User: Fold these one by one.
Assistant:
Number 1:
Amino acid sequence: MKTKSIIFSALAAVAAAGFVSCSDLLSVDSKTVMYEEDNTLSHATDTVYSVMGIIKQMQKIADRTVILNEMRGDLVTTTDYATDDIRELYDFNFGSLSSKNKYDQPVDYYSVINNCNFYLSRADTTYVRNHENVFLREYVAVLSFRAWTYLQMAITYGKVPFIEEPILSGDEAEKDYPMLDVKQIAQRLIPALEPYRKLKSPMYGSLGGGTNGDGSSSESHSSEDLFIPVRLILGDLYLWAEDYVNAALCYHEFLTLNTAPVPTTTNHVGWQDKDFVDLGQDTYSTMFGSNLKENWICYIPMESEEYNGIVSDLENIFCSTEDNYYFYQLTRSQALTSLAAKQKYCYHDVNPNTHVSSIVYVDPDLQTEKMLKGDLRLQSVLTEKTEFSKETSRYSDSRQTLKKINPEKICLYRNDLVFLRLAEALNRAGLPQTAFAILKYGLCKTNIDNNDIINQEEKDYAKTLGLSLDPADEKLVFNENVFMPAEIDVAVGATLPSYIETNRYNTMGIHSRGCGDAAVDTSYVFPHHAEIDSTNLAARKLAQIRDVEIMISDEMALETCFEGYRFADLYRVAMHRGEDNGLYSDDEFLATRVASRGAAFADPADADFDAVLFDKLNGDGSKLNPNWFLRLPDMK
């Protein structure tokens, strides 16, 4: 087996519209291209080697996917110790980024894409052994990697050259390639993946593990966790393409047709009793770090030591470590802090003597001492404290820990993210009650059958879309729910959390992850919009969809903050809202959110609202706003 490599170098960039010559963007050193023209990948060793090589290439863009999405969102802010590279991104000075900014290296995306294109052009998909297409799973896995990478690049750069063939020579680099945005790219990629939506990921067993040079243990990886399930990447493509029904179907199928349950799980932020005495014993933060299996679906594996390859720097950016002398660079924004504080935490209390139940709201004023206000997920995963050091000039006294960081695994998908994207797709498909049910109650037989949660009209409409909400359909229902108060039969002396904890695979509302028993919260309700004339059903439905969309966007912030999805989520929602008015996007929605990152309210009247940034990011919405995106080299 020959060593194979493709080396790219970024030279110059692209025209603002139309087509671009690839030679202006990429240059191929033909001396390093060692594949013969007639070579095909037809041996197991070749295909496995090539697929794992692509995963290794993805390590280069893993950290920046997180940083570029968070820095252009509304949930983080910089500290005085942020690097120039990070500060440039935070200031949205994309037209004048330093050429050495390590987060602005488009060549690394095309390194992945070109390796994928080479593999796809050479893999022998006709080879059958024992009535099984031997290399089809790897082929589809590479299609998924390419699709994910193209989405990330378009989310970062706005419009990018779309290339489906491998570039192996200068002649191929001279061709013209279309400049496409994320919606157009999604539309182009869907047909290649759609025939394989039921295909499972490759299985290579356990990879990695062992002892590092310093005596520490490196993590092992189940090979299945390194591949993107086809239904999930297809769901994302359909969502960006604004084909909401097919997006919902893909997410729905992944969640309901899986061989193992995909619950929202029992891991929510709670304490041992109703007095909330011990923040350290919450069950939410434990699903991050090394205990990932229950909630994570797939991730990019990173190296544990630099001499093995790419090591993640996210821990040094978000956390106080010995390597950074405890000077972390990013922390929570005022917008995120305020959003969490504005939520209400309630719980369903059962008197052990009388068995009488009641709904109790925790008074935020009683939690001031430990900052336990509203939604508790933020306090669960981000901890801050002061430790005085004798070497004050060398070490920071302020110490921060972000429990979502696992330096050897950069998460791409996890269960709650999929449920939230399902809610986003269902809502825009015209099913806002069903989408809201994911936030408040969880989707399951009991809740779907409850007309007070999802009315019959919406259920009937769902059937016309091909989305089964019929509890009798055993193949298309979600895991049973045990969180509904009416179903709770708590033994004397037992607490609600301990009862739920015995039911490992349940489905509860995502909002309950940080706000207690959201299902019984009378202030967290579906927006009925009774003030709109009942004869104007279309206007009422659209108003409901737009309001639920804001609730979903807020829930995305509370549940997935710091994980590298935020700008993409805001961009996608802005596109949805622009579509309502025949526009490319609702620029004002995104501009208001990002300009409010230092404010307590997403409101231009707030004293800390950044009016200058708002003006930069706002536009008429008629076309893609270039101020949202980094520039390819010649566009600066």
Number 2:
Amino acid sequence: MSQFVVNIIHRPEMVPEYAEKVTGHGKAEDLGRKALLTESLDIFKTQQQLAHENGLKTTIQMTYASLFNDEAVELAKEDHARYGDEIALSLLGLPCKEFREKYQTKDFCIWMFSMEDKKAIVTDVFEKFHERFGFYPESTGSYYMDADLINFIKEKYPSVKCAVATCWEEGPKAYHTCNNSWYTFMDGGPWAPWIPSKVNTHAPAANEEDSGIVAIPHLSRDLIACYDGNGSNFGTHPQNVLRGMIYDTETWEYPYLYNLIDQYRYQEKFNNGYAYNMMFVGPGWMNKMGRWESPYELLKKSYADGCAYYGKLKKEGKLLDLTMSEFADFYRAKKHYTEPECALWRDILYGSDKQLFWYCDSNMRACVNMDQGGAIVDLRPYAAKLYWPVGIGTPHVTDASYPFLIQEKYRAGYFTHYAGEGTIRSAKLCHNGEEVDLALCRTKAHFSQEGSDRVLTLDPVEVVFSDLTVKLQTVITFREGDSSIRIDRNILEMSDPEAEVDINEYMVGCYGTTEYAEDMTSLTLSAVKGEGAVSLPYEYKCREVSIPGADRVSCTLPPIKTKVSLLGEGPEKTGYFKEGYAFSPMFTLGYTGKLCEKEVFTTWLKLERAN
């Protein structure tokens, strides 16, 4: 039976994010201003009412500021008793008069504080919650929660079993669209619920690595539009859709919002009958002055319509509304550690035929782009379980992203500039001096699950040379619990059945979390054949090594404790690696071979932790 689950989360921010500046009308900042507190609480009441009118349960994430407000506390108690809403605790909404006086800071992102301050703030907030409600919460959350923070919370407050723990692809793209002012970098995590490892929040756990909580994302994003652009415009938070101007300004209708929810429902086809969605809303989005060039009336209408759509699905038996703690229990009963999350996502915004496939498990997060012939355009090596402490006093004060090996948005992807290369995993066909990259051959993918394998079978493409036409099909296989991606290139037919073509399977990679190149001199390139091995320290010298019959070619990246390898199987295979240069600070791993009609060339991309 298919199950589409939704979490609807409200937080009574007494000093809602942005709202003091928006509603202050030029007055000096006053976080305790009565008009601000009253309006915020009124909006929270409206949000709760709209959900309840449509038969939906919510999770009420109490903010620190709201714990000092008697009316907010009583409202939460009443709605818990009447509607079954969960009373939880948010680590957003810290700024208020009491917090500023106690901690003497304007910081508000819990993961950016020093570990000492994180512990003090968590203890302060959780104990205040217990003082007001007589119990400790089962759920908490923020935009992001680093692993050390989650581990501390779980150890000190074991009742917590669910948390909002990352904001999908909230990195340089979001930073740039906020006038280079939004210092919250957290690319590289899952887009759907997961169990985070104790070592790194982004990396799903495998067995003993279980942090003890189920994590959910901060908003459900459009997995194409958000990846290509600013995610804050493309999510199932209705006001995201307004911020992205994705609505009819005359009729105030927004079919994209419903299409986005429906596309999440569709993902159950790729995840054993289960799909997830969430809506996480603070009062600041619905203040009476309006937001995103939209009047209050439209802000309220969009939220009312969003709740009504979820309510309609529930009445039709197509939706299960759960609180966060209920969802944690549901998720642990439904999923097992090695089970991946998959998403075959199509463009529902721009009218293109673009299609991406996302895959996430405890070993990797990968994105396959069918507009680029099935090239891998994003790859995060979770197999390394990279410890990445975040906050003041760590090497990463603001950058919580999980590093990439391949990332087309920050490191070019298929490259058309006059020099250099971009990160990508693709293949080239060569014949009589002509060369065609499959990244230029658009296709479509079809998903199947074969035992524990998730298989993408791509529509065949035609590669046309001046004297030969080749029909080729690509099959990409992700094996559950395994840290490798298998790619088969099958020559279905050729205009000259006796002809032969050369194939060049390659991966161009690097590492980092932003657009800016890292120092590559600690990397080592190597090739192995039998008992023999050739290694090369990276020195930006454009060197290349080829080994006929090589068993494996690899690159070891100590800064991210990762070893990535290519293994090849096919006629006349030769393994090779290339060193980059300063203008193109990449590395290349590859295999070449020869193919005739009806032959297959197989390669595996494998990820390992490098100690």
Number 3:
Amino acid sequence: MKQLAFDETGFSVNGEDAFLISGEFHYFRVPADEWKRRMELFKEAGGNSIATYVPWCIHEPEEGRILFDDIPQRSLTHFLETAREVGLMVILRPGPYQYSELVGDGLPDWLYADYPELLARNRQGEIFGRKAASYLHPLFLEKARRYYRAFAEVVRPFASDPVVMLQVDNELTGVHVWFGSIDYNPETYGFGREDGRYARFLRQKYGSIDRLNEAYGSRFGSFAELSPLDRDIPADGLRSRDYDDCYYASMAEYLCTLACWLKEDGLDLPVCHNSAGPNMNSVFVETVRQMPKPFLLGSDHYYNLHQGWDQNNPTPQYAIHCLSSCEMLRLLGMPPTVLELPGGSPSDTPPILPEDLLACYFTNLAMGMKGMNYYVFTGGPNFEDNGSTCEIYDYNAFVGADGSVRPTYQSLKVFNEFCTAHSWMQRAQRKTSAAVGFEWQTVRKNLSGFAAGSVNSFRFASAGLLYTMMCSRYAPALAALDGSLDSGRPLILPCGLDMSPEAQQRVADFAAAGGRVLLCGELPQMDPDGKSCTLLQQALGVRISRTEQNQAVAFEEIGRVYGLTVHSLLDELPEGARVLAREKQSGRPVCAELPVGRGTVILLGASWQMTAFAQAQMLEYLLDRLGAKPCVSSQNRNIFTSLIEGEGHRVLFVLNLYSAPQQTAVSVYDDAGQVIWQRELQLKAMEVQHFELIR
């Protein structure tokens, strides 16, 4: 029997550090006489676990007729027995939602046909074009609860051997926001009722109707009078954002409900959930705080599923997304885990190539990944016309639907062997030079397209600061402004016009206590509710003029830098401040170094999207002034690097995420800024090289 455990740093199997190496393997698609052979193929490739959905639509085709083990395609018992025999752990994903290119996203047809009242609705009260359930609707919970009980009855004899983890639902909120909007089902949220979910949320936030009226500038007599369906609510107003937060809080309530069902039914196992992608991790802040432990939040990191994807292969932008996602999961207290790492694609074109997959895997590892579930390892025929996109769910996977082994299998094997040989990385971290700060609420707001002023701080962080740092000798981390801030390294803040009072005060206190801060973009002038808030500006002792122009900025020591959007001109500076850069045309200050208490703040009233290496030189210059410690430099700035350090170990990753060979010279620095390793490298197209360095 294998035992899986995890904490905030990594995984262990039977008490020994080990990567979670799982492969998606659908018993309801793969012929039963092939289960053992294909499981053994995965184990031979270095895998230690398999995962599968347990589709509600297949096991309850008619309401009340729940079927397990009656035919091979529904024989979950035999599947688990086979996994136990082969020696693989199992992660089960009972939904209710599955997706997986199943009709109804894994929910049974009768549910939507017989109970239309449980369907999710948009703000106009309309059912989405693609039908979706309202997660917390009483009828939906009633029907799903019965299915969970039947599922638990089958799985209990296999708890811990081989079943080691259970996933509740799948890519939560996706079926709503991708095909309609967040959910406004009136029964679910209890519009018009004092005991309704929406009214309770507002009461918990504001305490009294008088405080709510003060915030809204309204005259409501009770919480029940408020409805998010009012046509006059502005899309980015406080009332709209309150409903967004109510929706996200209800997602936490829903996942906690499912997890509690499992425990009630005797399945006291770790629970997980997968965010649909890096940009959606912020949706689960409340979930992480409220879920019974142990709980694992992971993410899905695809780079190509169809023609509409941003890229056909792993790219530098993909690497930035992976970095951002792994960092957010780390800050949420999770071992960064990719619960759907591409093992193929549902589309035949663009193709999934062995070289691309291997580059994808090493890129995720370089950005901090500690565990993975390949989606999918192998496929087969869909069950009784339950497929929504094909008859044969082959997925261009490592092992085809016909049982043939594809060239991508070798990429899987190479990568898994590396992970197995480097289990020490479970307790290791990326070496970083500075942290890019953010607020969870701001990420959510900016992802919705709302940004006060001209700077979307999350997009600036990604396409501007993080990308620029990856082109520099200073490696980035992320830091949530409601968490601990490390005084040992500079804090970089991509700012829009709004920032919460708490965050503004924390940054000011951090600097006053000796911290070093680089503040870029706009100087915050308001809180997220649109009320004036200039705590940070007051702490800096500056006066600014707002502007919006694309101008070269002339730095005294490094010359002109182009490609910047200037947002603020510095009209008044405190005593002891030093001007570092001026707008080329007017000569007015754009960047200055300011003393704040025992610390230092560099204020740069500009943002950018990484386009020119001069921007990387500018950022290096500013971080030099703040005492940042270099990690790795690449002579060819288009070649990204990452240095992972653990006790007694160090490994360097060098990434060429381009379609042609490139060369570079790489230097690695120690904590004192001295070069300790140098090498000139030739990299093939789409290649990630790795080097063991002596510590």
Number 4:
Amino acid sequence: MLLKNRYRILHTLGQSVSGRTFLAIDEDQPSHPRCVIKQLFQPAVGDNIQSELAETNFYFPQRFHVAALLLDKLGQHPQIPELWASFEHDGCLYLVQQYIAGRSLAEELSEKGNFGETAIWQLLGELLPVLQLIHDSQLIHRDLKPENIIRRSHQAPFKKGRKGELTLVDFGAATPMNGSWPKTKVKVGSAEYAAPEQIKGAATNSSDLYSLGVICIYLLTGLSPFDLFDIKSDTWVWRDYLKVPVSDRLSRILDKMIQRDPMLRYQSATEALKDVKVKVCPTPIALGRSKQNWALTAWSAAAIAILSIALNPHLPSLSPQMGFKTSKSTAKIPDFRFSSPRLNDFTSQRSPNAPVRTLASTSGPVWSVAVIPNGRAVATGNTDGTIRLLHLCSGKLVRTMIGHSGAVWAVAVSPDGRAIASGGADNTIKLWDIYSGELIRTFYGHTAGVFSVAFSPDGKAIASVSKDKTVKLWQVETGIELETLKGHSAGIQSVAFTPNGEILATGSDDGTIKLWNWQTGELVRTLAGHTDAVWSVAVSPDGQTLASGSWDNTIKLWDLNTSESPQPNGYLLRTLNGHLDKVQSLAFSPDGQTLASGDLSGTIKLWQMGSGGLMGTLKGHSSWVEVAFSPRGKTLVSGSFDDTIKVWRLSP
């Protein structure tokens, strides 16, 4: 593709509901330098009101023009890419910026492990002045995240930018601080790093400081910011996940940066930098007084650093990532067997007649739930890294499976009810014998936490999705990685097979759902319609309907197979509105007539699939909730961050 007969598009770097980013070559310049092109889509408006649409269409180019003028000036700074061009083409707006060669902080974390305190001091010392310059120019970045901070790999031409210097990139979401702009339904920035007021459409300069603070605690812990915030107590708990403690001074600075109340944060980057400089830039007098001690400490630190490097070599990736290269099936999966079950663990017990029961749980917050096919037990994934198997009627703890070194974010039960697959924050998937509780094998390959796992209908393959933006397919019997699917531009939160096993559906933080022919690697279709992250996808038992739950508080139903086409069509059937908080779990009843949905506030809603009407609301949880139906569909099981598992009797 040649844009404006000048910019040769090489490939896509990323995509979201608001735009796409490309790597390109400027063919008008003799040296054909690389550049980054940001394509911006027209924002969505609320309720399709004609006057609101006209207002948005009027202000969007104006805001873009103002932001481009500011970026043109800011591009003279060595830590901000130069703006080479800005223009409108075929109804889209484009920014063309200098390409910065190097590695992002996200890549550094993946390759080298958690950052130390010294690296965080350096990061703050380098980036806070850049943020102050941006804010002084009346611009808000609005998309600070590890992927948008690049460490230069070489000296820039004409001495603009030093090797190893941190550079702030991707100003596609930047907006002028002043001006009366209409709010849109499109949420900008990454949900993990965006400040609460920014998610509501009211970003300020302190919103960027919040994002930078969250980046720091992520780099220190290596865990998703979602895991570092305790919803139950409404507080950050990042210190609990530090492998090496940090100083009280750094802790106080970071705590102030990530205050959820904007008024309690630093009000400017300059204010934050004053506290940082006490650590990063000691006065000449202080240096003179401690010169001898400093020299001794430096030599000691160097010796310790050399010893640490020698004893802790960086381990290479365990599994290369390969793409599909053929239209024929590549997933040849043999039959497999698990050990014979001991049914005495699941002897039938009389069930109480209460409409809702709470099962005893002492494992802390529950991340995921799955009911075994015989309907007698429920498996839960827990924050403490365990999988617990509870008798559904009595609440008795059948067994505990221990093996993950981090929270268990996902559990799934094989179709024959003999195995459990679990995915966790430790980047691994584990396979367990459900009757003995023994670990069968561990699947390595993801470079970030595993958000969701699913068995293929024949039980011979496992699909896993991760924060590393990939979908991986595994052979159950051998643990071999069959293939890796790439296409989402952000972390992938949920995965589900269609009942015939032909199609795999994935929902992502980039706001889209993708349908894959997983055995050939073909991306069949991308479904776009949500305005925020898609945290759950579920397929109806007849394979005709896909449900998606999003952080935009809605559920969308998609037609997977219309009469006009044998392939998944992706036609939007309807949108279900009713949740007042982010929807993050979905489950179809076995007969396909009911859809259960759970949100971040702990509310569960039941929807009638024929009409899309709301059948009822279940209240009992106080926080984040996951839902799963029993095989007969008469009961619903829910696990929550409020430390409880509840069983709801839906019919006699």
